[in-house]
Amino acid sequence: MLPGHGSGPPAGRRAPWLGVAIQNAGQGNEKESARRWMDAHPDVVARMAPVTG
Fold this sequence. Notes:
Elements (H helix, E strand, L loop, with lengths): L17 H8 L4 H11 L1 H7 L5
């Protein structure tokens, strides 16, 4: 595995990764779980898809 490409969040991060939240939601609840996670972690979402202009 490449450094920095682990399956979990960087050291010191408390928020679970989006993928973990989706998996924990169970089948049929993925979309709603992703929405809740993104609403709860706007800072992470901004870093994942920065808007420049």
